[in-house]
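Quick one, C-alpha cells below. Sequence please?
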C-alpha cells in the first residue's frame, strides 16, 4: 500500500478510538453501557443494526463465494437479511414489550432460571464465535495490505475493537457504528463495486468471460442455500447481538421499520459484494487464497487514496460486528450468569466494572481463538449451527405456544446442543444434517416433555409486560 493509504487507515483507527473515549463518558449506568439508554432514533438504529449484521463473513466470505460460484454467492448475506426481516415483521412487537436485556432473560421469565442459564451459555458462545470471524477477517485484510503475519494483524485489529468496546459499551459501539456504516456504504456501493466492474472490463465483458453458471442464482447448490437458511435466517431471529440492538430503539415503530430496512440493505449488500467477487475471478484468475479476494481486488483496481478509504470501509464492517457481538457475549455472561448467580446484590457502579472486566476477558479469548482457527467461514458455521439448532425452537414456541413448559425448554436446549456438536464432530463443520437433527430433537423434546408435564405447564406465572397486560 502507498503511504497515503496507510495514513488514511491510521487516522481512521485513531478517530474510532477517540469516538470510543467520548462514548465512555455517556455510559454511566448498566442500561447505558448495554443498551445505549434505549434511546436511538431511526437513522442511528438502522445504521447500527445494518453495521452489526454485515461483518467479516458478509464481506470477505461473500466475496470469496462470489469468486467461486458467482451471483449465487450472495445467498449467505441474503439469508441474514431475510432473517432480519422475519424478526422485524413478526417478532419485534412481542420482543419490545419486555424490559429485558438478553434473550436468556426472556427465556428465564417465560420458563425458569435453568433455561436462562443454559441459553446464556449457548448464546454467549455463539456471540463469541461471531466475534472470532470478525477478528479473522481483520487479520486477513491487514495481512494482505501491510504484509504483516496473520497473528500480528489479528492482534492489532482485535485490540482496537476491544479497547473502545471496553470503554463505553453500547454507546461507544453505537457512535463508532454510525461512522463505520457511512464509510462502508460509500466504500462498497459507490467506489469498490463500480471500480471492480470497470477493472474487469465492464458488465458485458463479465457476461462473456465468466461461465454461465456464475449468473445462476442456484449455482451454489440448493443444499447449500438451505444450509444458509438454517444457519442465518433462523439464527438472526434469535441472535443476542440483534436483540440487544432492538432494545436500543426509542419506540416500537423505529424498531420495526429500522429492522426491515436493515434487512433490505443487507440484500443489496450481498448482491454488490458477490459481484465484486465475480470481477476478481476475471482480474485475478490465479489467486491462490480465495479468502483474500476482496483485499487483493482492492489493491489491484483502486487508485492511491481511494484504496485506503475503501479498505477502511471493509475494516468498518468487521469492527462494527465484532464490537456488537463482543458486547453481546459479555452481556449474557455478566447479566444472566454472574449477576444472577454470584453477584446478586451488586450496585450500578460495580456492575459496570464487572461488565468491563468480562468484556476484556472475552475479548482476549476471542483473539486467541481467531489465531487458532484462521478460517472465517468455518468459525461462522460453528456459531450459527448451535444458535439455530438449539435456541430457535424454545424461543419461538415461548412466544406462540402457551403450553411450552420450563422443563421442556431446559432439556430441549441441552439435548439439541449435544446433538449438533456431536453431529458437527462426526460429519464435519459444514454439514447441514447436524442442524436439522438439532432442530428435530428440540421440537420433539419441547412437545413431548411439555405434554407429559402438564402440571408444570399450569404453574407458569403470567409474564407481565410494560403496559401491565398479561401475555400468558
Amino acid at each position: 500500500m502507498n503511504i497515503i493509504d496507510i495514513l488514511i487507515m491510521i487516522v481512521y483507527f485513531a478517530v474510532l478510538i477517540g469516538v470510543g473515549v467520548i462514548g465512555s463518558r455517556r455510559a454511566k449506568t448498566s442500561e447505558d453501557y448495554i443498551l445505549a439508554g434505549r434511546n436511538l432514533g431511526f437513522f442511528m438504529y438502522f445504521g447500527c443494526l445494518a453495521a452489526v449484521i454485515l461483518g467479516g463473513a458478509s464481506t470477505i466470505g461473500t466475496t470469496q463465494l462470489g469468486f467461486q460460484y458467482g451471483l449465487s454467492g450472495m445467498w449467505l448475506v441474503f439469508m441474514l437479511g431475510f432473517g432480519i426481516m422475519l424478526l422485524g415483521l413478526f417478532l419485534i412487537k412481542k420482543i419490545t414489550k419486555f424490559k429485558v436485556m438478553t434473550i436468556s432473560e426472556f427465556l428465564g421469565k417465560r420458563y425458569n432460571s435453568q433455561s436462562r442459564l443454559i441459553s446464556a451459555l449457548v448464546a454467549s458462545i455463539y456471540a463469541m464465535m461471531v466475534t472470532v470471524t470478525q477478528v479473522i477477517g481483520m487479520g486477513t485484510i491487514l495481512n494482505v495490505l501491510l504484509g504483516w503475519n496473520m497473528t500480528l494483524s489479528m492482534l492489532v485489529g482485535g485490540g482496537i475493537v476491544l479497547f473502545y468496546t471496553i470503554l463505553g459499551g453500547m454507546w461507544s459501539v453505537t457512535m463508532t457504528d454510525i461512522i463505520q456504516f457511512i464509510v462502508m456504504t460509500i466504500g462498497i456501493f459507490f467506489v469498490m463495486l463500480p471500480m471492480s466492474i470497470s477493472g474487469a472490463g465492464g458488465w458485458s465483458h463479465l457476461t462473456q468471460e465468466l461461465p454461465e453458471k456464475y449468473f445462476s442464482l442456484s449455482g451454489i447448490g440448493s443444499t447449500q442455500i438451505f444450509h444458509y437458511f438454517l444457519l442465518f435466517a433462523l439464527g438472526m431471529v434469535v441472535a443476542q447481538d440483534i436483540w440487544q440492538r432492538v432494545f436500543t430503539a426509542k419506540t416500537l415503530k423505529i424498531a420495526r421499520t429500522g429492522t426491515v430496512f436493515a434487512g433490505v440493505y443487507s440484500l443489496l449488500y450481498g448482491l454488490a459484494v458477490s459481484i465484486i467477487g465475480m470481477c476478481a475471478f476475471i482480474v485475478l484468475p490465479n489467486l491462490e487464497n480465495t479468502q483474500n479476494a476482496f483485499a487483493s481486488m482492492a489493491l489491484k483496481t483502486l487508485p492511491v487514496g481511494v484504496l485506503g478509504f475503501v479498505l477502511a470501509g471493509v475494516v468498518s464492517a468487521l469492527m462494527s460486528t465484532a464490537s456488537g457481538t463482543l458486547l453481546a457475549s459479555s452481556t449474557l455472561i455478566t447479566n444472566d450468569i454472574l449477576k444472577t448467580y454470584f453477584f446478586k446484590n451488586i450496585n450500578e457502579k460495580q456492575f459496570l466494572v464487572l461488565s468491563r472486566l468480562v468484556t476484556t476477558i472475552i475479548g482476549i479469548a476471542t483473539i486467541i481463538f481467531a489465531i487458532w482457527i484462521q478460517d472465517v467461514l468455518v468459525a461462522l458455521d460453528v456459531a450459527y449451527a448451535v444458535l439455530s439448532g438449539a435456541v430457535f425452537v424454545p424461543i419461538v414456541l415461548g412466544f406462540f405456544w402457551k403450553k411450552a413448559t420450563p422443563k421442556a425448554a431446559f432439556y430441549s436446549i441441552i439435548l439439541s446442543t449435544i446433538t449438533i456438536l456431536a453431529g458437527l464432530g462426526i460429519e464435519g463443520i459444514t454439514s447441514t444434517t447436524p442442524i436439522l437433527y438439532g432442530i428435530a430433537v428440540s421440537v420433539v423434546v419441547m412437545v413431548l416433555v411439555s405434554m407429559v408435564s402438564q402440571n408444570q405447564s399450569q404453574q407458569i406465572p403470567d409474564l407481565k409486560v410494560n403496559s401491565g397486560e398479561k401475555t400468558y
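Residues 3-388 form a domain with the Sodium/glucose cotransporter fold (CATH 1.20.1730.10). Confidence is low (pLDDT under 50) at residues 462-472.
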